[in-house]
Structures are given as C-alpha cells and as structure tokens.
Design brief:
Largest sheet: 7 strands, mixed
Distance between the termini: 32 Å
Strand order of the largest sheet: 1-3-2-4-5-6-7
Number of strands: 7
Radius of gyration: 18 Å
Helix content: 25-40%
Order of helices and strands: HHEEHEHEHEHHEHE
Strand content: 15-25%
Shape: globular
C-alpha cells in the first residue's frame, strides 16, 4: 500500500511540475535577455533592477513585474537564462559576466527573483562579492531546497525536465540551496500558502503553495517575510 501511495505521489507531483512549466514551453521564444529602459528614469538614474525568472520558465514570466518597475522610473534588465542546460553555478558566472559587460557595478543594484532565480543570485553574491548593493526580493525561493526534488530526483521524467539542476534543488544539511550564501544586502521573501497548518496540497509538509513548503522559502537574515494566499 505504501509503495502504491508513493507512486501516486510521484505522479501527482510530476503533473504539477508539468503544469508550472507551461510558461517555459510557451514563453518568450527569444533566447536573448530582455533589456527594458524607462522613459522617465531621472529619479532612479543611479540604480538598476535585475530580474531572474524561475526554473522551467522564461523572462516573459517576469515581464509584468518589469513593466511595473519601469512605470516607477527604474531601468531594468530581465535576464532570460537557461535553467535546464546550465547549472546554478554556471548561470551565476554568466550573471557576473553580464553585469560587468554592461558596466552595472557603477550603479546601485537591486534584484527581483522567482524560485531558482533566487538561488542563482544568492550564489552570485556569495561567490563574486559585487559592490553597490541595494535590495533583493525573492518570490517563492527554494532557499532550503524542495521536498518534491528530494522525492523525484531519481525519477527519469523529472531528471529529464530539470536536467542539470535536479541536484541543486534538494534539501538536507549537505544540499546546495541552504548553503548558497546569505545575501550581504537588505532582502525580503514573498511566499505563497494558506496561512494554516496545511497548504494547497496534501503531499507537502506544513503550509505550501502547491509546489514548495513555506518553511523551505525562509532564510536567516531576511528583513521581511510576506505570506500571500496563492
């Protein structure tokens, strides 16, 4: 009975992963970064906001947020990175190269990330120690890893879907995500959940957003934490 239930769990979890990957498959067809500049940037001329989407998604999934920042006068960079064929470490190195190539280190840098994008930025900050840092907002970040990744890391379809980053999303003392570094800047976390003892799914412990447990989003040193009913 336990084995049968476990296989049902795997199937349900995998279907949820397929569901959240829709925007990756049908997202922005361009592999180039989306670089958008506000027409009214006088007030924030010395600042840049860098956006990183989540795993299996594209820069298109962040575009609504980008547009909101542009309306407030910020100059933005919405990076369409490859979350399947390059590891967190490789993407952090690419981010460092992009920031230097664009001469962004002369500005006050802010980051807005979703899911795995937050782990990439955390590792980038830890590894490359950039200066001139502002604020960092993480949306649903797997800061402590993901229970689903633990359960499905040996499941062939899951490994095919996440490719090089399966083992970067697991939990545990020796896992990558919990040790990716504490951001040396003011940062806050936005998580999804019901606000109760149980979340939107039955197969994750505690409160959750359907994919990630609320407790897994938390990180020591956060200036603020917000839970939204999504």
């Amino acid at each position: 009975m336990y084995r049968k239930a476990f296989h049902i769990l795997k199937s349900v979890a995998f279907l949820s992963v397929i569901f959240i990957s829709v925007s990756f498959i049908h997202g922005n067809p361009s592999s180039q970064p989306v670089d958008t500049i506000s027409l009214d940037s006088t007030r924030t001329a010395g600042e840049r906001v860098i956006f990183l989407h989540g795993a299996l998604k594209s820069a298109y999934s962040m575009q609504r947020l980008v547009s909101m920042f542009r309306r407030e006068g910020y100059q933005t960079f919405n990076w369409d990175y490859d979350s399947r064929n390059f590891t967190v470490e490789e993407n952090a190195a690419k981010l460092d190269s992009i920031i230097k190539a664009r001469d962004y280190l002369q500005y006050r840098l802010h980051f807005v990330t979703h899911s795995m994008g937050g782990i990439i930025v955390r590792y980038y900050l830890e590894k490359y120690s950039p200066s001139g840092l502002g604020r960092f907002v993480m949306i649903a970040p797997p800061n402590q890893g993901s229970h689903i990744a633990n359960e499905l890391q040996s499941f062939p379809p899951f490994r095919w879907l996440y490719k090089k980053n399966v083992d970067y999303l697991t939990t545990g003392e020796d896992a990558f995500a919990p040790s990716a570094g504490i951001p040396p800047m003011e940062f806050g976390i936005i998580a999804g959940g019901t606000g109760g003892n149980y979340g939107f799914t039955w197969y994750l412990p505690g409160d959750d957003d359907g994919t990630l447990s609320v407790d897994q989003t938390k990180l020591q040193g956060a200036s603020d934490f917000i839970l939204l009913p999504y």
